[in-house]
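Progress note, sequence design subtask.
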């Protein structure tokens, strides 16, 4: 380990090694950059929910068809996950991530130029495939650039950007629609991603050891315990919590070093299924809440914009709290956040069914819903890191994210069918049911805090 860092330091520019005594903190700049970039990407996918009530005036469709339109992006996005893992492993995050963001922006802009429902559908499919490599690119960057004690926090920052995009989208989207129209929303949202992709290519290397902005002391901090095959510094927890550990099934796990082992692991599959249910709820809120607020609660366009942003403001807070909770208070335990998130979300669905029509009160309830739903999100991203070899982590992450995105793709369409045949009470009941299902699934997977020493040699 010491020889590795000594060699790395010798290969670094003189100005970096001269300052090796005091670590740089460039990894947090990288975190800030992927937060901003993915905020834009998340806004590009979220804007359809805002324009959907106005788009349907131009292109007539049932609720089921509208839900299917929303799902097209997510189906393509989910199918892109495993190929994206291969591309990132083959060509590196720097190149693939940059091109992915450029294509995402192009697909977004083209959506504002559509003249038919078919072209709109094709643009949404193209957006899904274009954006596919972005989440695996970010999580691979987190795995490479952060020590284990910071991975949960960094993942919380990333997942906050997934939710911060929908915070700004209803507000900006409502303003653009009021001033110009729904097509202009896509044109305006296309611009920032092109510019930010250039910043990523110039400023973020595939590995911190390749970056001219990182000195040897920061490399030593990042590389803490990373000489083995695992995804980081993986040891038994320093603070025993016997009752909690029995509930969450703390187990000794071997490191998964092949694609076959990753694909057959129930821990990975169970994590993907739990994420499938939880991301499904998030997808429903994103796609259908603006319509619900306009048609059922009878809010104005601007009130809709601000209230529809509330769950995503809460989600930003929840993601950050979830990362800090797992890293600091729970000593890298990930399952408690998942369980808290799923159980509390089920309860919030009942509250929302009986919620008042006052914008302030309903916004507060949606804020709480978004926060509670998101507390466990960072745990799903970080969960495979302790027991999956670093070179196989993109595959594991792709499996988990693909499961989540398939759930996100299915639920808007299912909700459309429920609305056509039943009503909104059934929609909230459906979300409560899949939250309860998440609790049962997560209880079956282990908490892999212990990695066999032999596997890390």
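Output:
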């Amino acid at each position: 380990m010491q020889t590795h860092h000594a060699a790395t330091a010798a290969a670094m520019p003189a100005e970096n090694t001269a300052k090796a005594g005091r670590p740089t903190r460039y990894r947090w700049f990288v975190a800030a950059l992927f937060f901003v970039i993915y905020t834009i990407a998340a806004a590009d996918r979220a804007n359809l929910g805002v324009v959907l009530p106005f788009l349907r005036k131009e292109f007539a469709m049932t609720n089921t068809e509208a839900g299917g339109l929303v799902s097209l992006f997510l189906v393509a996005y989910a199918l892109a996950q495993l190929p994206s893992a291969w591309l990132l492993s083959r060509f590196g995050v720097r190149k693939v991530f940059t091109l992915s963001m450029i294509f995402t922006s192009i697909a977004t802009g083209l959506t504002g130029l559509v003249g038919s429902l078919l072209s709109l559908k094709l643009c949404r499919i193209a957006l899904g495939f274009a954006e596919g490599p972005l989440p695996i690119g970010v999580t691979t960057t987190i795995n490479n650039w952060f020590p284990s004690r910071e991975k949960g926090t960094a993942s919380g920052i990333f997942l906050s950007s997934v939710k911060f995009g929908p915070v700004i989208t209803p507000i900006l989207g409502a303003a653009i629609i009021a001033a110009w129209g729904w097509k202009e929303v896509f044109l305006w949202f296309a611009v920032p991603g092109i510019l930010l992709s250039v910043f990523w290519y110039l400023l973020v290397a595939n590995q911190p050891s390749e970056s001219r902005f990182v000195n040897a002391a920061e490399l030593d901090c990042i590389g803490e315990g990373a000489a083995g095959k695992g995804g980081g510094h993986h040891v038994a927890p320093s603070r025993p919590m016997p009752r909690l550990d029995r509930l969450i099934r703390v187990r000794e796990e071997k490191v998964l070093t092949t694609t076959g082992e990753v694909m057959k692991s129930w821990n990975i599959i169970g994590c993907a299924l739990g994420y499938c249910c939880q991301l499904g709820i998030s997808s429903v809120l994103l796609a259908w809440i603006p319509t619900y607020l306009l048609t059922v609660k009878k809010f104005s366009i601007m009130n809709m914009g601000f209230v529809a942003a509330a769950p995503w403001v809460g989600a930003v807070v929840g993601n950050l709290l979830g990362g800090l909770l797992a890293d600091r208070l729970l000593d890298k335990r990930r399952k408690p956040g998942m369980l808290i998130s799923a159980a509390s979300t089920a309860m919030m669905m009942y509250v929302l069914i009986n919620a008042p029509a006052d914008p302030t009160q309903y916004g507060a309830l949606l804020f709480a819903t978004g926060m509670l739903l998101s507390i466990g999100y960072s745990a799903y991203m970080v969960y495979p890191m302790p027991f999956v070899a670093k070179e196989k982590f993109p595959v594991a992450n792709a499996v988990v994210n693909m499961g989540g995105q398939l759930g996100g793709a299915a639920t808007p369409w299912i909700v459309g069918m429920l609305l056509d045949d039943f009503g909104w009470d059934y929609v909230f009941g459906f979300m409560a049911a899949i939250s309860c299902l998440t609790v049962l699934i997560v209880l079956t997977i282990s908490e892999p805090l212990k990695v066999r020493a032999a596997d890390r040699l």
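The longest strand covers residues 447-451. Work on this subtask will continue into the next period as scheduled.
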